[in-house]
TrEMBL record:
Lineage top rank: taxon: Bacteria
InterPro entries (alphabetical): Dihaem_cytochrome-c, Multihaem_cyt_sf
Pfam families (alphabetical): DHC
Protein name: Diheme cytochrome c
Length: 160
């Protein structure tokens, strides 16, 4: 009888350990500050003008942006076909709505299906920055300069 209880207890203990390991793995996968390492072409072409962190917009937004590179805000972006394909695939695979990061998942939920082309126009961004003064924005040289206020922005860490 004692052996039966011992085997039952051992089985429960093993199930608990496996469950904790799975939960921990899921936690790391969806870490809010997970370092998304982009291809060098993305860092060079996109990160030279603004924060290059894909999990701030949903895949639909990235598709729209990549589809209209000649009219990319204030500059015409020219990429060869291979670079465009590589960057587009990386953006799609690491967008807010892919579940790659917890922050991205939260952003995707708050967008309610919207696909803004500017991060600064998303409901999530506006809500998070509604208390930032115009003076601070001017000092940062605009809202696209995340690193002016968020030192680890390129890593996806946006705490103040």
């Amino acid at each position: 009888m004692k052996k039966r209880y011992l085997w039952g207890f051992t089985g429960l203990l093993l199930c608990g350990i496996v469950g904790l390991a799975e939960a921990h793995d899921g936690y790391r996968k969806h870490s809010p500050n997970r370092l998304l390492i982009p291809p060098q072409t993305y860092a060079d072409n996109c990160g030279s003008c603004h924060t290059a962190y894909s999990a701030l917009l949903p895949s639909g937004s990235w598709k729209r942006l990549m589809g209209d590179l000649p009219n990319h805000f204030d500059a015409a972006v020219e990429l060869d076909a291979a670079d465009k394909e590589q960057i587009g695939a990386w953006l799609q695979g690491n967008a807010a709505d892919t579940g790659t990061t917890r922050r991205g998942s939260k952003i995707a939920k708050k967008l309610h299906g919207d696909t803004p082309v500017r991060i600064t126009e998303s409901r999530w961004f506006i809500h998070k920055h509604d208390d930032v003064s115009q003076g601070s924005i001017a000092k940062a040289q605009g809202l696209k300069n995340c690193a002016a206020c968020h030192a680890d922005a390129q890593r996806g860490a946006f705490s103040r």
